[in-house]
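Feature request, filed as a ticket because there's no other form

It would be nice if the structure record came with a short human-readable summary line next to the tokens. Right now we just get the raw output. Example of a typical job, pasted below so the devs can see what we mean:
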Amino acid sequence: MPPAKRLRASTREWCDRNSRPKSPILTSAVQPEPTRWQKPGPMGRNDWANFHSRYQVEVTTLRNEIERLQGGKQKKSSKPTSEDDNYLRENQQRLSRPRWQREKYITPPPEQFSYRPHLTGRSTPRPEHGRPVKKPTVPCCFQHEDLETEFWANMRFPVSRKALRACPSKKICELSQPRQFPRKAHCSMAEDQIVRRRKMTPRQWRLHLQRLEFLSKPNPRVLADLICCCS
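Raw output as currently delivered:
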């Protein structure tokens, strides 16, 4: 084993001082200044006078706090008077009035949008510039049926630029032609294989009449726009 190394006296003192356990009592580095009641020696006349005045102030504040917690001093007659009612009513009106008064908000009329259905899997239709065109001004009523017919016959709408440059497909051209009877069958079938038409049952006929009655009525959206205001 190597010989023990001799330490300096200052190093040995430092090791002895730091090897001891810390004391559990934590002493603050800066001691607070003692109050006037903690000063050594007897108190003078002025000190006793200040102590008495401070004690009286603390006692009065303590009494007021106790009375406040207990609900104040109990009066003999606890019935509210007319002055109390007036004060409470005025206070209620003052508290119910908003601090910053504003005018009543009037909702603007809903904006009318044209009907553009959105099909899933396709891009959202975006109308071109200038379309949809504004609704024509229609008079509320006509004096004669001929005037109404002439008005709608002379009504013209601007044609879209895309419609002028569009090239219709074969199916669109076929649908634009008038119907031909008998209709062309999708696949050629022999006359023996054609299913013979049967008569409607009473329930089918009743539902058919209901559908015809519904289709004969005008569109409620169109009627709402053409409300007669002369009545």
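Something like this underneath would help us a lot:
The chain is about 40% helix and 0% strand.
The helical segments are 9-19, 45-69, 82-96, 145-153, 161-165, 170-176, 202-216, 220-225.
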